[in-house]
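agent> step 3/5: call structure_predict on target 'Sporulation kinase A' (Halobacillus karajensis).
agent> reason: downstream docking stage needs a structural representation; sequence fetched in step 2, passing through unchanged.
tool.input:
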Amino acid sequence: MNPIHSITNHPTFLKNICNHLSDAVAIIQKKDREFQFIYMNPTMRKVYGNLEGTPLNEWGCKGKLDQLKKTFIRADKRPDKLVEGGNGSSVSPFGIAYGIQSIQQGMTYFLYIKMEAAQVIELLKYKEQELAESESRYQTLVETSPDAVFLHDEEDRIIYVNQSGIQLLGATGANELLGKDVKSFAYNESNDDVRHRLEMLLSGGLVQGPLERQFQRLDGSIIEVEVHGGLVKYQQGKAVQTICRNITDRKRQQNQLEYMAYYDQLTKVPNRRYFFKALSDELTWGKKHGTMFALLFLIWITLNRLMTDLDIKLVMSCL
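tool.output (status=ok):
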């Protein structure tokens, strides 16, 4: 059996050997129709980041991934050899030459990158520059976003807010919001409910969204907001990113349309559509909870005459 095959078939042996190498080593495997990193030694993680469990199509651009997959195909044809790929940063997904050996055709591959000290330093500088540029682009997008963006730490304290978030809560500057408990802005919702939702996000869980909630601004006024939340990394720690959109005007228009649909515009009395909706709601609720309800159907024969003889508003108030 090929030595590479022998090593990869014994995970503990693989880690004992590869964890002390100054060269970069990784195992790439096909899972759920996608190739992903299933093991990286410390050198690989140091230079390229911890990508274990990350699909290749989420890691690199299509051109470089196509080049890597072509190397997989060449490696499948020579399973006893370490096939060389990418001789330069323009074609290599890793910035330098690398080797691929097929462990299981079309499924599992051994990745080896010989790392000279100068190359490691150069790659680390490149990665730092790339990260700084990426963070700069992200911050520009966030700062200019029309939606409010908040970051809060594991103790629910606001640690970042963009300009739209400052305006949303009626502050004059970020210093009025930083350090405050994000739960203090939730209106008509218990702190326990908000904390439960944040704990779920911090643990990596998902909260079905968007959620419609009410916030209380610094001046005490209440606004309607649409909220999305997710887990992000912030300064080597975990944080929850909350994106909020002010939907107060939209909710007001929806309420107006609903009122027009269910109330007579002249008398302001609930109409037939409202009656059937309320009846349907009661039937549904009764069926769900196993209860009964009574319906009184009253016909007022002299109603039309009363409306003719008396003031219509007086008749409606009696009703």
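agent> step 4/5: record observation. The chain has three domains: 3-122, 146-250, 263-318.
agent> proceeding.
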